[in-house]
Amino acid sequence: QVQLVESGGEWVQTGGSLRLSCAASRRTVGTALAWFRRAPGKEREFVAAYRWNNNGQYYSDSVKDRFTISTDNAKITVYLQMNSLRPEDTAVYYCAATNGVLSTIRSVSAYNYWGQGTQVTVSS
Predict the structure, then answer these.
(1) Following DSSP, what letter does each residue of 20-80 receive, concatenated?
(2) SS3 84
(3) Looking at residue 11, what is its pLDDT?
(4) What is d(CA 123, CA 15) in angstroms, rounded to the nearest whole number?
(5) End-to-end Cα spacing for the chain
(6) What's the pLDDT tens digit per position in 26-62?
(7) Of 24, 100, 101, 112, which has the fewest CB atoms closer than 10 Å, so is most exposed?
(8) Neighbour count for residue 63 (Cβ, 10 Å)
(9) Which residues pair with 97 in a beta bridge?
(10) Which residues of the chain fall below pLDDT 50?
C-alpha cells in the first residue's frame, strides 16, 4: 500500500510563492507522481506531473511558467514550487501516483493513490 502525505499549504498574498511537498512511502512510486487541485465548486483538475523514466515534467496551461515540479535525489518526495500565485489558484492540492502510460498522465482516473490534500488560499 502506497501512502502519500502532502504539506506546505497555507494562506499567501496574491503574487506570492509557496512550495508544496509530497512524501511517498517508497521511492519512484508508479510511473509518475502528480499534483491535482480542487477549487470550491469545481472538479478536480490536473496541475503538474513528474514522470520517473524520463524525468519528464508536465503542466497544465494555467500553471505553466509559474509552477515547477521537481523531486529529491531519493525520488521519494515530489515538490511543487508555485510562484506568482493568483486568487484562482486557491484550492485543495492533492498528490497522486499512477501506474499509467504517458497519454493518461493528465487524467484523474489514471491515478491509483491519493493523499489527503493540503489547502492553498491566495488573496490580497
Answers:
(1) EEEEESSSS-SSEEEEEEE-TTS--EEEEEEETTTTEEEE-TTTTTTEEEEE-TTS-EEEE
(2) coil
(3) 98
(4) 9
(5) 40
(6) 887 889 999 999 999 999 999 999 999 999 999 999 9
(7) 101
(8) 23
(9) 33, 113
(10) none
Angle CA(115)–CA(118)–CA(122) in degrees, nearest 5?
A: 150
Q: How is 85-115 classified by DSSP, letter by letter?
A: --GGG-EEEEEEEE---GGGTT-GGGEEEE-
CB 87 within 8 A of CB 40: no
Q: Grid cell 511537498 — which residue? A: 21
Amino acid at 89: D
81-108 per-residue burial string, b: 16 or more CB within 10 A, e: under 16: ebeebeeebbbbbbbbbbebeeeebbeb
Q: Which of 99, 123, 110, 124 lies closest to 40, judged by CA?
A: 123
CA pair distance 105, 115, nearest whole angstrom: 17
- Residue 41: Cβ-neighbour burial (10 angstroms; 0-12, 13-18, 19+): exposed
State the cell numbers at 11.
494562506
Could you count the other beta carbons within 10 Å of the beta carbon of residue 80?
Answer: 26
